[in-house]
Structures
1.
Amino acid sequence: MNLRTLARFPLLALAMLSLLAGVLGGLARLAVDVPAPASAQAGVHGALMIAAFFGTVISLERAVALGRFWPYLAPALAGLGGLTLLGGLPTIAAQWLFVGGGLTLLAGSVVVLQRQIVLFTVVLALGAASWLIGNLVWLATGLVQAAIPWWLGFLVLTIAGERLELTRFLPARPAAAPLFVASVVILLAGALASHWTEGAGLRVFACGLLALSAWLLRYDIARHNARQRGLTRFIAICLLAGYVWLAIGALLGIVGNFVPDAAMRDAALHAIVLGFVFSMVFGHAPIIFPAVAKVRIPYHPVFYLPLIVLHASLALRVLGNGSDDFVWRQQGALANAFALLLFIVTMVTSVVRGRRQHPGSRTGPRGDTR
Amino acid sequence: MATPSASVPDVESVRAILRQVIDPEVGVNIVDLGLVYRIDVSAGQVLIEMTMTSPACPMGDMIMDDINAAVEAALPEDIPVVVQLVWEPPWNPGMMNEAAREHFGWQRDR
């Protein structure tokens, strides 16, 4: 195992630490009794989840793709940013580390662009730029809220760009690219406008998200793949469920729930991050984690269990938020955290199962895993 | 002493072995997807040049490992296998074969 591969493990550990602290900090916001060091993270829950956790894993994934050493600086800086928040150091130190991470990921995305300038590589670069802008906004304003549209843009554009790439397998449909571009322009225009006119800007941003969710439901390859079997079908179902949640979160945003103190802000944001982004993560971990950590994760139908718990508990949380039932919302959030834990346990046991099936090696034709 | 080239397989049998390597995202093998650009068996070794559909995809190493494992399992141990990831020319849908195109719903006789 070379140095680049070995370097991935401490980075993954930093990401998992940010995830753990971020989730516990989030639960503390809903008055769940968590250990004191974790409840201290309640104010930076969003930063830990997006800038630290997703910043680390997405830029690690990009670094693996680029196959060079310097792009690993991005996940290292993002992971250290998370660690800085956990260590109670001045927030500005974490903010600068995230800015450095964002810059490095953007530089990596430019290298991807140099290999191939097409719409999907441009969208991936825009996703990286959104992370950087969100980090700069947080640094400049000190407000996590002000960074949220850019951080959501980072996640949504990164995923949408990768999905756009995969639509090339399907017969070309002339309207697909212009509609995609229009959705991205609306989304970015809304994020930008939110700094001058917050309410209206965030509604426009939500319109962009809704347009993208409709695009993904209409044009993504997932509907085709849902008719396949095994892992391919599982990934597709994770994605399709996620697109529905993206639409729900966007609709909640259009009626004004992205602004601070909105009644259903919790539901709007978590429909997107848990319902859409984490659902995608559940689907892709069995192929991306092996690529990053050089382990095998053979498919098993038990993968559907954490997925069902995630979506059911999110529905409970959103309904609790909508009906002003705090207990439903709180229990839903606890079950969301349980779904993430169940997912991690499922992945770890699958790694062990993969080792038993292929002792001493993680390699082998993948055809036997479906 | 046996010459290595005597036991090197032909291109078509290497291609058949590579059909065991599936892109898990879409459930189709890498040969039908048009990701295998070149198979060369001339220099006493098996040289495979392949690409990925996206330069931002982290699965390159893993698919190359899968190729190595599939080829090594099917061929005698003494034949070196070299797998190279290349980006030129960039992949495009026209590189898929008829089986893959049919799988994804393309019309025949483009």
2.
Amino acid sequence: MNTEKLVPVAPWRPGLGSDLPKAATGIRGLDEITRGGLPRGRPTLVCGGPGSGKTLLALTVLINGALSFDEPGVLMTFEENADEIAGDVASLGIDMQNLVDAKKLAIDYVRVERSEIEETGEYDLEGLFVRLDYAIRSVGAKRVVLDTIESLFSGLSNTAILRSELRRLFRWLKDQGVTAVITGERGEGMLTRQGLEEYVSDAVILLDHRVHDQVSTRRLRVVKYRGTYHGTNEYPFLINQSGISVLPVSSMALQHRAPLDRVSSGIAPLDEMLGGKGYYRGSTVLVSGTAGTGKTSLAAHFMDAACRRGERCLCFLFEESPAQLLRNMRSIGIDLEPWVDAGLLQFHADRPSRYGLEIHLVTMHQVVADFTPDVTVIDPVTNLMTVGTYADVQAMLTRMIDHLKTENITAMLTSLIPGHTTIERTETTISSLMDTWLVLGNEDVSGRHHRGLYVLKSRGMAHSNELREFAITDQGLDMRAQEGEVRDGSL
Amino acid sequence: MEVSNAASASPFPEAAEIYRLRLYVAGTTPKSVQALRNLKHICEAHLQGRYEIEMIDLLVNPQLAAGDQILAVPTLVRRLPEPIKKIIGDLSNTDRVLVGLDLRVRE
């Protein structure tokens, strides 16, 4: 049954498969999408509406260059003054003045006040070139940000001169060999108001900020990237206290490793049902059932077992608070608190309605990347479905699961089935992504409450087809087969 | 780098404002030559004896560009009398230069 062979994964790595010289942005996700970063020594246009995050993206490229890649930078800003920008960046924990003092960053604030200027006759923008050149030389800049150069159009009236000078400027930047980021405001029917995309032919990144059902999502798309294979999808991205992070669409090519080692479910009889050894490491397990069937208890056993093995375990909660979960599980004899204290178990609780799906997804990616778990539990994954449409949820979960698989993280997702709905219909959304699917149910027969569990599917292993009855006791899930309780039939 | 034309113009007439003008250029180009020529012409005609022209070549002193917020060249900056005024271009349109210098009311 185990047909998934060990296929080597080929995620992007620095220096791998990069067709053109790239300048890493240091932005999580963006370097993956672009296979290494922005075109080195060439201008990139970043456009988007007001508040779409273009200035932040540009600044992050600049600051990461100065801090992490030994590439000093120049910020030429046409909009905010240097103090305001320093304030914006300070909220991300970065002290721009330090960088300026250390000669890693030069800032030139360009202000054009139309009311102060009289235009008479021929001119050019050589003054701008001189300033940029001077700033570049003063720090030996390798990166340059122009934010937002289109402001010149409101300051100067001769658009013919402006256009030809901008064309010259972008060519000049290329001649200087600097990696430049030029921001532009989204225009009607055009990427930018002044059609800057016409001048910047190397790379164009479009940012978008949408509010749907009062939930805001940010998306990024690489519109154009000459000479480089790049993802053309829209990628969700997040701006938070640690800056900007983009979520690359996972390798949809299904190139995950298929490890052969197994991890225990934490319940010996259940391991027995799963070919005697439990789940495959790096696989994804769906546990579905109606309310009160023991899904979270099953997940708690799994987490407990992982921590006992000394593995790191991350648990996303979309219904209960960590305190509630700890209390409830303690009542059935599973004490997870020592694992939390030991730093092996971390909870991340959020209300599903708090953000859009994308933000949940990006946040989860970030938490996973920060905590580097061996095992991840999402309880219940169905609560996320209230946030978006089925198609959106499926896309999001596909990405999430794909990411977990790529990282070889064993995942357990619990799924709450509304009463009286057939399992197959509600869960076709995600079931195809699952390696193992456990179904829990309960039934009241002659005054007694029966709980049952069966393995609906488990790829790559000979698994039990039995429906097993179990009890939830103060010692946890008890699956010891009792007389007459192994039955056939549906729940 | 400074071309002062004021020496021959003293003493300034009393009560007349002194015009301190700065002309920013980038190298010797036809536009910069033209601008200086036009400027001198206008000053002699309208500000005789009460102007100073300081010429700054940004190719020699690039650090001076940011201070006066120079982008375009040539740029003429009227530093005195206040407020500061900027006139960009080769100053070939005398009427607009005079308006820019507040020597003529905008029509």
